[in-house]
Fold each of these.
Amino acid sequence: MAYLTPVRRPLKIYAYDPMLGRLPLHRITLDVLNEKLQPGPRGSRVEVIDYDGVVDRFYEPVNLDDPAVLMQGGLEPTEFDPRFHQQMVYAVTMKVIENFEIALGRRFQFRGRKRLKIFPHAFRGANAFYEPRRHALLFGYFPADAERPGANVPGQIVYSCLSHDIIAHEMTHAITHRLRRHFFNPSNEDVLAFHEGFADIIAIFQHFSFPAILREEIQHSQGDLHKNTSLVKLAEQFGQATGKGTALRSAIDNPDPARFRNEFEPHDRGSILVAAVFDAFFHTYQERIRDLIRIATGGTGRLAQGDLHPDLVSRIAREATSTASATLRMCIRAFDYLPPVDITFGDYLRAMVTADFELNPVDETGLRRHMIEAFRIRGIYPSGVLSLSEESLRWQRFGDYSPDSPRLLTDVLAEVNGGFVREAAETSRNSAQDDLAAGGVAEPDEGEEETAGDSRYSSLHRWASENRDLLHLNEGKIAVDGVHASFRVAQDGQLLMETVLQFTQSSGNRDERLGGVPLRGGTTVVAKANGVIQYVISKPLPDGRLNPEQRQAAQDRVARQEAYVALLDETDPYHIWQDETFQKERVLRRATLAAIHRGGM
Amino acid sequence: MGRKKKPTAANDSVPAMALPTSPAGSTSTPSRGERLPDESPVRVAPRGTVRIRMYNTGFGDCFLLRFPGTDRERKVLIDCGKHTHSTCKPPIQKIVSQVLADIRDSDGTPRIDLVVATHRHLDHVSGFAVEGWDDVEVGEVWMPWTEDPDDPVARRICERQSLRALQLHREMIPRLNLSPARRDYLLGYAGNNLTNSTAMRVLHEGFQGAPRRRFLPTAASGPGQVQTQLLPGVEVYVLGPSRNEGVIRDMDPPQGESFLRYQSASAGSTEVSHAPFSECWTLDRDQYIAWFVGRNLPDPLSDFTEQSAAHLRKQLENPEMELAATLEKSVNGTSLVLLFKLGRAVLLFPGDAQWGTWNEILRDERWRHLLQSVSFYKVGHHGSHNATPRRFVDEFLPPTACAMIPTDNVAQWPTIPKPALLERLRQQQVHFVRSDRADSGDDPRFRRQALPDGETLCVDLDAPI
């Protein structure tokens, strides 16, 4: 009689990195979904290939199904065995995928079901990056700074693949690229910054899912998670080993609208987004533990000096975890409500508020309220809203002002959704039985539409072509960029099923002034299961048929992109020394270069 | 830099009382064995103008200003250098001899009231390494605050910059597997950032008349008007480089890590001993595949071919160009930005200041007002796009202004000078002239002097006061 396949697989990791991992508490066990694995590890979504480009050699792969490994719940953390490194990158990337799956309410797959390749020791250097063309994560290793190594030995080898934050950050880049492939095309100053900031948000909030550490930090800071704890810092060993003297980045800032106006290096600008989201989390959390503190202090709200009662710590930790995961879910869920191109931080706020409202019409915890406030005090205002009230920030519901709102063609929707229901049924039976051989469908090239030989795409394409006015699309070519269904349980206990469609268009014009990034427009459609369109979230290309307001917005967008390229040109020292081919594609090439060569993930 | 002596004067914010207004005071008589090159035809600026002479050094800067004074004219030399990548022929020695001739007073002594070195790039200072400056009587030498030998922040920036330049130039580029042409190109490019110590020693310690050295703006006063007796009647403002932390960050060369990685990557390509893990876990490609096949598992490298591995390795090496460009920018960021105002003549010399410095300047209420009255603009950084903000041309530079662009068409740098910038200047009706193509000036006020072979020697402009 066979045994039931376990649902989860325990794997050990450094909670942060080996430097902080010297504390036993900072070596933790991460539960990931159990799937059929080959040595590598190679699962259905990711595969680790430990190829070292510096020496042109491979390192022996870990077999996580080996009884010796299983029996101890995964290899013990160590810097010296590359097989532990492979285990850790696998575990953390799987955790990130799982967080996305929970929030998005669907199984996550890369385009064409192609596995993401992970190279834990690809090169020498204090960096790590996601490479879309290769569909790979590349991690570097490097000797710690000789003069200012921080809490490391000078010259000691530091592995970026042993930093939880770096892994989570790079993995999020890969997933973001899957969900919105045009977000690597810098069409305004927020686009790359969003990519960076969002990746940091995922890394930071995963810290709050490590219960033992959270309890320790709560005890240590008397519940004030705003203090400079490891929880709010990113890539500490990395930052110290590169001579920076501190963590690479932090989730805490001094809210200052001037930063939002003047900061445009993607990581620095992204950190404003991180700080805003963290700020909203923190205020919500504080509100949620206020009653606990009152109970514990006999109503004074003032904690006595010394240690907190362990029960209180546990209760506070539970609130922190639950607020953190609510925040994380809200951040990820927003993706379904984002325009497919040219994102701004303002769009993101609107998408978060809308996404959260759809699931929880009543803002019981105050998270939405705090989020809006956190963006406001940093000077981030969405364009085209009348006020910062929640109602005006939410994307306008399509049917709100016209009772007979158009529907998706029923047969298109039936076809689309039928496919998803079948898939969901198959994959949810038991993920451990996933067919490893599946996959291998070629990913469509940049700019081409995702046909994947799927009749769903052609019928959606036809539908979009027939409804250009409704979707704010012009007469040009339309690409169907994404079709997703999501299944979630709403606040009222009902199953909420939505279909999310993305259509994009390109001016096709690789204008030299824009440095190789064409003008792009696009529309995200969110529809209910019965075919009623809920939201049409668009960034149209300039077109005569748009209404005056939309036309103005489209023109503003063009102007904004031009101004952004001009700003890049003025600030970047690199391109002036380059030849003409580079000039034509400078914005694209700069984005790649920056990713590869600038120190720091 | 092996400097031993302290400069004559420290960087106090108030001028020393006893400072002579004339650079005379030296008793030494210049003894020169050689005959001077012919003097240029008009030596003294006509009354009511400031004469601006731009020398054609190629890809480099050299400007001589003559301000009228009640007793005598005052001379200001701003930079003197030439990039090794210049295509223009006259060697820098020739330009220096011409400068030395042009600054000779009627008593036979070469005198300059004020020497300005905007930043230590070769294409701005290499001329000072040429013989002949020992005899020149100088009133004061002004340099950016980052040159101050007594300022710890300045020292750190300066040392880091020159260390990085040295690493690139001496260690990294020679080790790379490059074509000779590419290597020479990169060496020249990185070489621009070397300490240029001979030239800098002259600027810090040389000249006759024990000139006072000033490092601007001072920590105490920051950017603002410079109190000076050197140029009676002329208001002099120092607009940059800023001492703000955000801007200083731009001056700091890239952090160590990318250099470390770079060094080890080039070293590691020959030495397998750099592998971070024990031999027992290290497999070559065939062994790796065999490891799987031996366990009845499919080949894991079917879509990671030898070619993809080679491509990966290639992609990750040779960031030298970007490193050099970042370094280049960080030194440009130290540029001294000066504005001279005498009546209607408002002359802006921004060195090679780049975005950080400009951004700071354009945000400052004091400068915004002053910049709208600029009558002469020395186009920054040889006309490259990121040394002249578009906003400055669009919103500040008045249409009647004149501009000079010391530049040279270097084949590898097709966007210097930036065509769009020239077009924009034209649209704004700013009259400009290029040092390398005197015929580019559309205004008869620019007067060109040619060498016997037809190459431009210098271009003059008389700016009315």
Amino acid sequence: MKKCVLLFTCGLLVAMTLLTSAGGVQADEKRYKRSEEKYVIPDVTLINQDRQKVRLVDLLHSEKPVLLDFIYGTCTTICPVLSAGFSSLQRKLAADSEKVQLVSISIDPEYDTPEVMTEYLEKYQAKPGWVFLTGTREDIDKVMRAFDAYVPNKMSHYPITFLHAPGGERWVRIYGLIGTSDLMNEYQGLLRR
Amino acid sequence: MASHRRTLPETAAFLTAATVLLMLFFAGWVSAATVKPPAVAGLSEAEALRLGERMYRQGILPSGEPMLAIVQRDIEVEGTMFSCESCHLRSGLGSVEGKVITLPTNATELFKPFTSAAEEAIPAWSTMPQPIQWKIHRPAYTDETLAMALWAGIDPNGRELNWTMPRYLLEDRDMEILVFYLRHLSAAPSPGVTSSTIRLATVIAGEVPQSDREAMLAVLEAHIQARNGQSRREEERAKKSPFFRMKKTSAYRRLELVRWVLKGPPETWERQLADYYQQAPVFALLGGITSGEWAPVHAFCEVNRIPSILPLTRYPVVADSDWYTLYFTKGLYQEGEAAARFLRGLEEVPGDAPVVQVYRDDRDGRILAQAFSEVRGKLKQDPPQEAVLAPDSKVGKAFWQDLAKKHPGAVLLLWLPPRDLVGMEALGGLPEQPGKIFVSAGLLGDALSTIPETVRSFTYLTYPYRLPQERAKQMAVVRNWLRVKNIPLTNPEIQSGMYFAGWLLSNALMMMESDYYRDYFLDGIDMMNDEVYAIALYPRLSFGQGQRYASKGCYVVQLGEGSPPPLLPRSEWVIH
């Protein structure tokens, strides 16, 4: 019995130590998780902010390097930071910004109409070369699944950015919210391939 | 705006200088901290709060310029891209999205020590032996340490905040205004909540049929009774429960649902609502039903910042930026909108085809026509022609034949009730037969058979509900719940709607724990998962920050042969 009490007390203290050390404030030493993956792009046609039909395969397999993320217009934390990152990258690339294709795909297609997407891009001072896509829920789900980024509900989503070089077989998958210099390094690495 | 943008080196220099200045300023400020001014010098409290609120919600400085910040170490952002509210939400209680948790920044949380221990723990944590007391992650913020966190991302322990939290480039006075606002943000529980009760009201406005009123009340009261029934002995657990999840159990309150019955002309309703509120304030409005208008209730809630959850109204207020009323749909407006979008996507109808809206000069007709015209304008298409029927004019076979001759081959939007569609079979088989006809399910109601079989091949119906053939499973959920509650199924639309309203209330209250702030109640609903199960009438109800119409879609269908006719979908649920 004494042993049980001792074990329980030790367990409680260990658990409390672990819990108390998990604070809300932490330095982000490990900034992001990176991997390279092969994805098969589904043959779906989505709609861009100008209400034009866009065949996703054609857009992603164009002559330009592609950066892609999944966002939605009324997202609270993840998407604003991802989109600020895209906006910042376009500013840094300046005149070269049109040489890279930025693609944001809505995971809230019911709400994200072309009007909402246009307003969103304006808010982030998007330049030509950044396209925001919506579509039917079925098609959006197919795309998320293809990129191993499926979430059944938009509130469960997570921050991922994908990079692809023209003609490349693999995509770079970045998990986490990252700054412009890290994103720029990844982008330049892509160009050196 | 671009001319005010700092470059990154300038920004870094600014940040460093701001930090140094802060240090110097800090020393003086701390010594003077005992004499705290009541508001920001030179501003009334109301003006300081207005300016602070604009900074927090819209990211706009008192000067009118956007706030500037650095996020993720090197991303320059303007407040107009996203603001404090984007992540910490309107209440300041923070958000949870996937694995990303944004901590609270409201007054009560900021200005007390942050620890994982529940305050209401029995026995109090402070009385426990020191080794097992919970660690204080950070002491309470002061105005000065909070400014340091906002400027440089350093918390009162000297630890660096995660770089997802922006570092704001603010002048001293602007910082003072923002901190002043945060001192007042969700600082005290909202009215309508006591230590034992949450008071809610449901509004019954105008001459609502007795059967409709009873159908709504029976469902809402069953929800209230279920919560107050304390099947898990909640009140007892709140008093005696040990510390584990204490906050959840101590948050329990009984619900009280009062009826606010509005009589007389709608112009007098706001006054009546104010009188009810003055007698005994409520935390929120739940459901509600009206014979016509809802706008006065909407306006009352907006002005007084009272949440109003899912009223049953034919005339929801369609507004882009209003906050406090959550509707099921945009009503008839949503149908006019869907017709315009669907028509634009029809390849067989050229963009310059003549389009004519036919409607009575009454409220229903005007809403549908306005929605169709507005969306057509947004789609950069020519405005439709209009044939507006006077209130006393008759419609019949001759009318339809004349209309077809006048607009041969046109697309006709017949925003008319069933009684005005009599004789429309005359439109079929004419040399001038219309190209397409659109009618509204909201106006037809159950009288779908009004559409004669001779015109069904080119007639489309806007249908803002789950298709009847796909409704059985979800309706069974509602039916079974009603059976358990001993409530007869008399009005599936009202009862399934209020079933969902009660379900939503229950979930929102569970999430709130004891943080009874009205804005947090709405924030909680905004953060909820999309719902496809606890609803019968709509395929999906979805939420999100500021999204105020839960059902976003509207099918366009055609009618098959027979009576009642089967509905054949011709569009997706959401038409872009």
